[in-house]
Amino acid sequence: MQIANARSTRRISDRREIEWVIGALITVAGVYLHWVNFRSAGALWRDEAGVVRIATLPTIREMWSNVGHESCPILFPALLRTWSFTVGGADPALRVMGFIVGLLVLGAVWLNGWFFHRSAPLVALSLLAVNASVVRWGDSLRAYGLASVLMLLALATGWRFAREPSLKRWLVAGLVAVISVQNLFQNSFLLLAVCAAAAAVRMRRRDFKNALAALAIGVPAAVSLLPYSAMIREAQDWSVLSQIGFLSPLIWTNLSLAMAPTLAWLRWLWIALAILAIARCVIRVLPDAAQDDADTAAFFAGTALMGALICFLIFLRLAKMPTQVWYFLPLTIFAAVCIDAALANWPARWQFWRCAFAILALVCLPGARELITYRQTNMDLVADVLRKRADAHDLIIVHPWTFGVSFDRQYSGPTPWTTVPPLADHRFHRYDLFKAKMILENPAQPVCDRIAATLHAGNHVWLIGDVPLSQTPPPQIEPAPNNPWGWLDDPYSDVWGAQIGYFVAIHATEGEVVPIPSSNPVSPLENVQVVSVAGWQETSAAHGD
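User: That's the sequence. What structure does it adopt?
Assistant: Structure tokens below.
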């Protein structure tokens, strides 16, 4: 018997050593991808430029009063502000901060692996370390990467309290919870899942006092969000411009891209692993509570996973906003760590299956590298071309208006510029100003007047972005909300852009598509085109009358 036990212990030790080596190699591959992303991402695109501009406003009071225009609480802008004023606010310096956050994600995955099962988190690393969506959007200058790190810390500290409650562990978990929700509002829904899982663990052990204490971990975090109530109510006035409702196909598409950006079949592996993790949790609920740490960890992780999926869907239904891939970053990272913790020691006789995930990482690596070599934007290259070629008497038109945020950051030349419609502030996304234009009769007319004056004077008009040039008259629309799409902003912006394109097409006599060379591909989210037009003819001449 002693010989058999010794052999079993040796096999476990050998397996753990192999897992540590494989985990280290996958981590090295992940660090390499973060480095490639750091070298390739380039200038800040509009979403990043907006939050950086809010973070670097002249005073902290101004930053606080405008943080409602961004989708995160105060912590991330405050950290950006500190970084910008100490390390540097140029794009390359800010990319360093994103690179560090990406490495922290890997570190948080390892930390959870140690807390949950004292071994390498092979499943989580294989799903996340070489995931192009995790690398690109986790390193982006938005709150989602750091929110994922803090949510993993909240998961780890919640587990430590559930496993062995104490006042010290409750205080640590409560503090981490507060910090987590102060970085991203969505984290409050994932935090609810952590608190529920911790409470469930204590209830299985008939420890109802500490079950209530586990639920109370989220109370300080909830209280810390109360100062944002007025800000959230104000933002609801213009958030209606983007509320399209709970669209299951769109949610599924973006969630799939978050899980499997390179290999479509990988999404089904995620789902299969999640089902296994939840099944193991449910199976362990039925018998009496055991004191075995591995079973308890599986129960906690599976319960947290179920709670996270339910709570996040509730959040999406309440928000009614169009989802993007990066919205799912905290959820997918949280889910991968929960899956890893739930399946770490299962099945007992077939532990080496986790080592096979090294093959998955190897298969995903080439595709992930290809995706993250894309530039986030070419607006900086466009700005360089305009500084060299555009005259002070020319006019620059930027469309859609959201591109004005990145253009405002990148362009510093003498040529006047405007968006469609003209807005008074382009430092960050001012949906409130855009909504005010939506109720006007013809907000694009001032832009047409400026184009006419510029072309009449013999100067050039530069069309930046997506201005559709066509001699087909655009549709006529009423001021908002007296159209079939109500308050949704994109249809209004599209029609106004078409009005500008039609006006230019029937009046300009010459045009040129200006090439914007780039050493690597540009993300389709902000791959900006440039057209230069000149000359003037009256409408009748344009139609050949």
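The CA atoms of residues 401 and 419 lie 5 Å apart.
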